[in-house]
Specification:
1 helix
């Protein structure tokens, strides 16, 4: 569960435990460094995956 993940919007690598929020899309969980990145993703997820 630990380790680094990449925010799909800004491409920043963050620690999974330090992610501000997550969102599920097509059965996969995505991690975000900020609420702004999550909001952008949720408006158009297919743009970022």
């Amino acid at each position: 569960m630990f380790g680094k993940v990449k925010d799909p919007v800004c491409k920043k690598k963050i620690k999974r435990a330090e992610a501000v929020d997550t969102s599920e899309y097509e059965g996969k969980l995505y991690y975000f460094c900020s609420k702004d990145c999550k909001d952008k993703f949720e408006k158009n997820p297919s743009k970022y995956v």
